[in-house]
Amino acid sequence: MSAPQVRTEAAAAGNYPEQRFNQRERKMLQSVANYAQASKHTTAGGDAVEVISVPGAVAADIALVTMQTTGATPRTIVKAVAGTDSITVTLSGDPSTDHVLCWALVQG
Q: What pLDDT does residue 108 have?
């Protein structure tokens, strides 16, 4: 969704005329439009590397990944790299199946 579409829908939902959006709000909406996707991923375990399927991702994108829920054996995120249709997250060890990662992909 483009920034103008977001602005139009937000104005309609909040019953605000579009003219009342100030510069700061416009910039915020434009930056939101740069996000390709965002979601959560529960780790599969078995290896320190988790591959998250993200259709449309490319290597030039920026992957932002945080740990929402740490499982029974706490692990940390070492790195996250965007690739073709995926984000590859390397953790400090096998996370088992009880860690939840939150991710956002910003178009590069």
A: 77
Each residue's pLDDT tens digit, 42-83 = 999 999 999 999 998 999 999 999 999 999 999 999 999 999
- Stated pTM of the model: 0.69
Q: 14-52: buried (b, 16+ CB within 10 Å) or exposed (e) per residue?
A: eeeeeeeeeeeeeeebeeebeebeeeebebeeeeeebeb
Q: What is the pLDDT of residue 107?
A: 84
Query: What's the CA gap between 106 and 22, in Å, rounded?
Result: 24
Residue whose pair of structure tokens reads 């995926």 in the numeric block: 86
Give the amino acid at 6: V
Q: What was the pLDDT predicted at 38?
A: 87
Give dist(CA 43, CA 9) in Å, integer.
35
